[in-house]
Amino acid sequence: MAIVIVNNQPVDIGNERLNLIQAALRGGVFIPHYCWHPALTVVASCRMCLVEVGEKKPDGTVAMQPKVVPACQTPAKDGTVIVTTRRAPAPPRPVPSKASSSTTRSTAPSATRPASASCRTTPTATATPRRA
To answer: What is the rounded average pLDDT of the residues 25-36?
Structure first.
């Protein structure tokens, strides 16, 4: 009997040939997927079912693969470790700069033209149309 570990929970998959989506579902964990269906061939094109996978060694240690893999395409076997609960780290928070924190908007110098400057454009008499 093959045992797969899904999010630190052992799941008995028996001797059936299952992919990681099916094995996780046996353990009550739904892995989102779009392009996989049990009656169709595996294309693994949507990449929606990416999971972290590792292997439990006989001494009890777990060796995780360095990349995520599509669960629909990866076969489950005895000792397979599936991790679906990790989240990506939050993006770093912006550090306020000293200039923006000490100067308010009303007192900051304007980067635009002064109000007296004119944006009017006057056509010149010598301008000729460009030919392509």
So the answer is: 93
